[in-house]
Amino acid sequence: QQQVKQSPQSLIVQKGGISIINCAYENTAFDYFPWYQQFPGKGPALLIAIRPDVSEKKEGRFTISFNKSAKQFSLHIMDSQPGDSATYFCAASFAHGSSNTGKLIFGQGTTLQVKP
Amino acid sequence: NAGVTQTPKFQVLKTGQSMTLQCAQDMNHEYMSWYRQDPGMGLRLIHYSVGAGITDQGEVPNGYNVSRSTTEDFPLRLLSAAPSQTSVYFCATTRRGKNIQYFGAGTRLSVL
Fold it and tell me: What gap in Å lies between CA B23 and CA B40, rounded to an integer?
């Protein structure tokens, strides 16, 4: 079963626009929600992450919005740039105590293209 | 400081052949994981380890074996390769108590 569902599969945005990627999760025990960015030929790298006790986290042009009641979270990229063109993955995991084994459950991925 | 090193970067196998994908880390992280990446399916966990001598299955373990004799190394073995195992494989490490996973550059495997 797919515990983390991500949409859209692909996204094309003009330079300067806002890119929005959405994720939904099923397991309410998840308590850590990261976003990873992957460039072609490279491994994923952590972009930004949030815990469910806050509704929003912002780092530069990247913002995570979190809706615990809806079991949804999203990544917003403001003022999108061609250098942001990459594949983005949302993920979920158990961050605390004995449940923290370093495992991540990933969404399906979104390929973002930012046109100049 | 190399981080997470995966070898080989590319490999072509024939159905039924066996091989080992290597993963080595120099960050002294306790946790290591193997994922496979397929189009439209994201990354799926194959096997993971919370320390030397301890391994467990992930979401898609069938056809793969792992062992962890040292903190640094976590090899992934394909016993009898099948076309369904054509994929990009990533190794990742995490420090115990932390949540950031550090990924290698991947191994692209084709099984004909």
Answer: 25
